[in-house]
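User: These chains co-purify. Model them together.
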Amino acid sequence: AQSVAQPEDQVNVAEGNPLTVKCTYSVSGNPYLFWYVQYPNRGLQFLLKYITGDNLVKGSYGFEAEFNKSQTSFHLKKPSALVSDSALYFCAVRDEDNDMRFGAGTRLTVKP
Amino acid sequence: ETGVTQSPTHLIKTRGQQVTLRCSSQSGHNTVSWYQQALGQGPQFIFQYYREEENGRGNFPPRFSGLQFPNYSSELNVNALELDDSALYLCASSLSRGGGNEQFFGPGTRLTVL
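Assistant: Joint model of the two components:
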């Protein structure tokens, strides 16, 4: 069965600095990988996905993620963080059986 | 905001009762998934419906059941409520059931079991 790990409960960065939120996964076949963001009292909002092709995936709000097959990682990145990026971020992996597994989440705090 | 709506927003029940949560999928989407998100955790997959048929199920007991209707809206039913069922229940719709289809989430229903 597939699984996903987000090794950091919390990430703190200063506004304007680059940010990285880490994710590693385990899946038996080809992975479908996703990043979602959750703001307080809201549902999850889709940011980006990797299915196949280019290892660098660009998504909403200036976020991007790099798929690394050898390290089984799919880290979320942004070159310049904004205070409004502060939220809870979830990595998710899906196999071909359509069972989507989410990580425990990483709370990103961007300080002015 | 996605086009996925859920009702009710909040619900308080007592142990042993039954509850029905509702979800309207985004226009054009034929697949609905349900998730349970306990406080401080990531969403846990309950089950998925594709064109009115169950298309996958997570590690939840049979007292969690669902339905999908011809208009692709969906219900989650939970019988014999337990205290640990207190959580945010999320519904997500997608264009189809294929693994690469992203899911669009509703705002959730906050269930409290006393």
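The interface with chain A takes residues 2, 4, 33, 35, 40-45, 48, 55-56, 58, 90, 92, 97-100, 102-108 of chain B (CB under 8 Å).
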